[in-house]
Amino acid sequence: MPIPRQIFEQLKHLIPPLNGTLHKGQSGRVGVLGGALDYTGAPFFAAMSALRFGADLSHVICSPTAAGAIKSYSPDLIVHPILREESTPEDVRPSLESLLTRLHVLIIGPGLGREPYMQSFARLALSLARKQGMFIVLDADALWMVGQDISLIQGYRRAIVTPNVVEFKRLREQVGVDPSVPSGKMAGLVSRALGGVTVLQKGAHDIISIDTTGEAADLKESKLEGADEEKEKTEDTVEVDVEGGLKRCGGQGDVLSGCVGTFLAWGKCYEDGAFG
User: Fold this and answer.
1) Per the confidence metrics, is the pTM higher than 0.70?
2) Distance CA 115, CA 36 (A)
3) Residue 189, helix vs strand vs coil
4) Under 8 Å between Cβ of 206 and 240
């Protein structure tokens, strides 16, 4: 199924001009929250792919147990080892809140793991990012976190979830979508149940879907107060049937989340008037 031309035209407006008019950071400042003792590769892949896709600056917010390894992978990444196991969310809040004000988008999940302290910091970061009206990408164990409490993202249409086959099945069950629904329509129904969160369902054919027409959609929660409610209602699905790699290995989803994050960062720069 070809991607509609109008989408390509919209994307062109979001790509920063390479004409010397922009300053450092105006082509996107991306943050990745994840990385603990056992997981150092995933946040690196996400943060590095964001840079290689075109972001200006890429930050990794991680545990001190992961920081040394991540720093050694590349001098291009800005690493913040502030997620200490012995710290409480309130201890971390001031540093995290200050850091998020410097970013355009936050990617939560690559290398996050399910340890209680990392999950608690991820919930805090998600809450702060929503408060600031940031764009958010949720992948890997951030999706597991959301599955424990859908209200963490419900109604916030500046968020994108990127589930693989197993993660999507779990998310579909958690929001109560009937499994007998045709597979091509499931992502849209999950988006509707989540209140307009964009769903990027990974598979043989990736499906990208958004539905903001349901009762769970909330302009106020999405920091869109004052917008025309009728104009903001949308229902759209795109199937990406371009063949990718035939091998499925660790790290591919992290690379995708970094690229998605860069596009969202560009969108925020465009929204803020840095270009366009």
Assistant:
1) yes
2) 9
3) helix
4) yes
